[in-house]
Amino acid sequence: MTTTAAQSRTAHSHPYDYAELPRLMGLMTGDEKHGPAATSTLDVLWVLYDRVLRVGPERTSDPGRDRFLLSKGHGPMAYYAVLAAKGFLPVEWLPGFGSYDSPLGHHPDRVLVPGAEIGSGSLGHGLPIAVGTALGLRAQGLDGPAVWVLVGDAELDEGSNHEAIAFAGPAGLDRLHAVVVDNSSASHARPGGIAARFEAAGWSTVTVDGRDHAALYSAFTAPHSGRPHVVVARVEPKDD
């Protein structure tokens, strides 16, 4: 039986809502927090987990679940806060963030963090892994699960991402979705903007305000038959 996004949300309803995310993030203290990297992703993560992804604490081993890959893993506090808000992990874990005996490291570990699909943090790895995940699901005949990957704009300085972009379009990986959170931290400019690079490789693209939940939801759910889809979510520059 196929579980709809609405049914999945009902199945793992939890008392925490978006308004409480800043408090949950505030529980995580210590050095090496990469605060701007985390806060830039907060709204994207919330809209995905609250309204789009067919995932839940009870579905972490379900072959039919959607896959979410956090490529931008070097600032995971927003990710941990959203996972806690949705019941994947106990809120009591958050204050221990980054300590030697905490499962919540400075980069997520898929073995230690419930709901994490990959260990991440090294720039440029997530999108290629997402391409491989989409290919693997296709090879198994699993055409229901969507694959989502959240990438930072600075990661696009890494050549491995461009190989993944160039492959995914012609391969017609229409279950593959990328979200590029653009906080103007990339070193190299791209003529025409970030979306133009994906468009050139045959991707469906939408560029939106990364703080506007309605716009994000509309972009995330836009039809893109036969093509992978990327949403470029623009947020305030990193140094603001």
Polypeptide structure, described:
The protein is an alpha/beta fold. It has a single domain, classed as 3-Layer(aba) Sandwich (Rossmann fold), CATH 3.40.50.970. It contains nine helices and five strands, in the order ααααβααβαβαβαβ. The chain has helices spanning 5-11, 21-26, 35-39, 42-52, 77-85, 126-139, 159-171, 194-200, 213-220; strands spanning 67-70, 147-152, 176-182, 204-209, 229-234. Helix 6 runs parallel beside helix 7.
**Span between termini:** 47 Å
* Beta-strand proportion: 5-15%
- Report the structural category: alpha/beta
Highest CATH level, the class: Alpha Beta
> CATH homologous superfamily name?
Thiamin diphosphate (ThDP)-binding fold, Pyr/PP domains
- How many separate structural domains? 1
Q: What can be said about the biggest beta sheet?
A: 5 strands, parallel
Report the radius of gyration as a whole number of Å.
Answer: 17 Å
